[in-house]
Amino acid sequence: MVSRRQCTVFFVCVTLAALLSVWAWWPDKPIAIATRIWPGYDLMYLARSEGWLAAEQVRLVEMSSGQESLKALAEGKVDGAAMTLDEVLQARASGLSLSVAMIFDVSAGADMLVARPGIKTLADLKGRRIGFEPGSVGEMMLVESLRAAGLTKEDVTLVMLPIAQQRDAWSRDEVDAVVTFEPVGTQLLAQGALNLFDSRQIPNTIVDVLAMRSDRLDRSHAGAIRHLIAAHFRALEHLNRNPQDAAYRMAPHLGLPVENFLSAFKGLLLPDAAYNYRLLAGTSPELLPSARKLSAIMVKSGLLKQDDPLTTLICADYLPTDFQ
Amino acid sequence: MHLKPFIRLLMLIACLAGAAQSPSQAFGAEPVKIGVIAFPTKAQAVAQWQPLTVVLKEAMPERDFVVVALNHTELAQAVAARQLDFVLTNGGQYVLLRNRNGLSSPLATLASNGTGRSLTVYAGVIFTRAGQADINTLSDIKGKTVAAVTTASQGAYQMQAYELSRVGIHLPQDVKLITNGFSPDQVVAAVLAGDAEVGFVRSGVLEGMVRKGRLDIKELKILNRQDLPEFPFQVSTRLYPEWSFAAMPHIDENIARHVAAVLFILDENKAATRAMGIHGFVVPADYSPVEEVLRELRMPPFDVVPRFTLHDVWARYRWQTMGAFLAGGVIFLLGMIVLLMYRRLVASHHIVLLHQHKLQESEEKFRALVESTSDWIWEVDRNGRYTYVSPRVEALLGYKPEEVLGKSPFDLMVPEEAQRVGKIFAEIIGKRLPLVSLENTGLHKDGRLVVLETSAVPFFDPQGEFAGYRGIDRDITERKQAAQDVERLRHEMALILEAAGEGICTFDVNGYHVLVNPSAARMFGYEAEEMIGRHSHSLWHYAKADGTSYPEEECPIYVSMRDSVTYHTESELFWRKDGTSFPVEYVSAPIQSNGTLTGGVIVFHDITERKRAEDKSQRYSAELEKKNHELREALANVKQLTGMLPICAYCKNIRDDKGYWSQVESYISDHTQAVFSHGMCPDCEKKQYDELARLKKENS
Questions:
Q1: Of A319, B94, B238, B689, which residue is least crowded by CB atoms under 10 Å?
Q2: How many residue contacts between A and B have a Cβ separation below 8 Å?
Q3: C-alpha B550: how far from chain center
Q4: What DSSP designation does B593 have?
Q5: What pLDDT score was predicted for residue B565?
Q6: Which residues of A sit within 8 Å Cβ distance of B?
Q7: pTM, whole model, 2 decimals?
């Protein structure tokens, strides 16, 4: 006869096996990711065109501004977005729970304030028209550059200019200076603009991240999120290994000539998987102090009402584990 | 890359002029040999790169420079034999030579001229005829005839092979590859002529042919066309770095540095670059994508499969291996447990089956018993509702079992009886006691009453709760009737025995009294009860009339029992309690039941009076008899000689009273006891003989 204990053991085993199989066969849900035109984000498009990113798992939704991305996130139209860390903090302050799953790039000069040739120093900005993208990293760049110039917002004329309109506004001479970022920055520089202030002066502050709605960080979305991150790193590897080929493939989407493509990345650090681990994982992720500093800057400049406690800001669970 | 003949000629002259001057300036120095791949042909290659030697000579007048155009094999051999100082070749061959012969890192990467733009990358083109309807994607190439320049060509074989390997087509085995010394133009021609279905060339070749009017691009179909708007040529593969300019390891570092410097500023020398048909040279590209292609294709220098040992597997897949082993172990363990449990289950299942079979058998046995018995067996639940009734109920009460199920026993009684029995039942059932032979009257379906004897025991569920009764009902109507009949008979018999004047006694086989009726008791002078159980013979039949002992063996009553005959006598006497006797007439008979002797019965009456009367009458009879005898004797005498006898006077015959005449002797014989003997008297004799003599005489 079979004893009660054996029965118990047997049923525990059967239950475990059933759980395992359910775990293994849990249906994966697709995700939608809001993006903008930005070299750091464009590797996702390279991955998609090369077939490394399955469209049925990850849908990329192009947005024209960070505000649009935030709106789509808040409405649940997208599950995550490629956005700047300061936007993430703002969204969290507004009650939308977001977590950083990956870092696309760290701006090291890619965000800049450029001015017309006559304006030689930051101090010369006084009384000028400065275009900037509101509610985003642009606003922070503006605040930081004005502070570096010893000016306040009242000293200048502010023109709200989404990134898509900046080139037109520049050529129509509607602004004297503009807070911009790549690739528009390079394009304006090519038209004779001068770089007066860039993100190298505020290092590790402007970080582009993959922010996921915290409620999507579950079992059913894990497959798609991992897939997206892996595809991004694969495209990044291709860019590093065969930059010329990548340049020809990525330049049209960014609207850049191939010759200028690689220089559009010059202001950007593109962290690979290992670097992402350093930034996001471990006992003291490097992103945390930067985020804390950013939060402080944003509180000071009025972009945030209070410091973000930064709990659940980082979720490194979806980074690949098999890098060498 | 294509040189205008005129410029080529100019350059050649310049070069020859330079060469003529050189011996005096670079005394004893070997010319620096630059090996280039013979593309498209040796002559064209030499002509194309000759201007480079001129530029180099200008920069380093003390050295001479020579361009040697070699095909892939020759180039490899020349490098191996250290016959060259610099090598300008495609990325694939560069990787090969670097790995095999220690070629330096590239000094520079060629920037070719693509419709006026600098191109530091190039790619491969895969094409087929425009009319080739069955080839539209890379997958369609499987099994087709493919024309290529050589497998060592990076842009006209390796790049294409790499793309195909990514869709699962492995060259050369998956296609029919033709590489018999084609030039790129000949590859295109072969495809157009139908000799090959697919062709491989490097990017720019087709556009060059179109430009020269040797090809209408509409005749061809580009496969796996890459959407690269910025790239000036149609391509089918990824982009890879242009040709590499590398130095041999033995080369003087000074020369290498100077050559590199010349290369980097070559684009400023428009005349030279135009003569060479290139844009110049740029800082060396990363050739690792090329290396990856060769690795993937397992082409030289990566054609040797690295040794892959178990240790490598362990080093690389340690956790996976451990996990797999662990999972395997768990699965094995679970399997064993399941197997063990299965075997035990089978065994216990077998036992259960056996038990079940036995149970079934026993149940069938009991069911057969229950259903074949003349008694009705039933079960009621705790509410007194029938949950089982044996089919016998139909014989008892006329109901089918299913009609009875769910009913209560009281539904099968007339109300008065139900009330009566209900009280009794309630008391017993309340105490959970067994019912023992409780008599009650049921109502048959046809309306008649049936007397039942009910016995039952309570039963309890596994929790010990009272669950109902199981019992048995027996139809005792007939038994009841029979008992009444017997009682009546017994009563009648008692009356008869009481009333009978005759004494009647019965006894068992041994002669002990069983029954004595009052008449008998009175005649014997006993009380009837006194006699019961006492031995009959020794009580009242122990002696004969003369007072001698009467052995039982001789007793006719005993004999009648023994011999099973009925015996009737009037000549015996029985003894009273007081020791007196009386003559009796009795009939004794054995009592038999089913042929077996069970006892005897005797019916008798006192014949003292009759005997006395008989004695008297006997005496009278004897006297009468005596008188009679005397009379009869007298009568007999009268008979002999009385009366008148009419006698014939002649013959002396006598007439009897009936008128018949008979001889005197017969008459006398009849009427007396005298008998006659016949004889002849002498007179008669004489007379007679005379007569006779006379008659004789007459006759004679």
A1: B689
A2: 51
A3: 87
A4: E
A5: 86
A6: 1-2, 6, 9-10, 13, 17, 49, 241-245, 248-249, 251-252, 257-258
A7: 0.56
